Amino acid sequence: MTKPPEDVRLLGRVVRIRSADLDVDGECTDGTVYYNSEDENPDNVRDTVVHELIHHYETMLGLRFKEQQVRQLAVCVLQMIRDNPKLIAWLQATN
Ligand SMILES: [Zn+2]
Description:
alpha+beta, four-stranded mixed sheet, 3 helices
């Protein structure tokens, strides 16, 4: 499985992404997103990382999402990115 990047930037802050021995799919603590090191399904890990990054935004912005809302947002964001590489390239362009 391709590992996620070790660091990402959210709202100008560096957020670490690490695997860990967890009893759950993922966790989001101060400055770090963790995914379960036992999970070998790349689609699950991607969903978990996006899910935990949304929790990170939630904390940074002082929002209060219900867990179901975070799950649904993660599925939508991940699928939008995966289904639309041309959109992602256009969003990343600077001209
Ligand atoms: Zn959650």
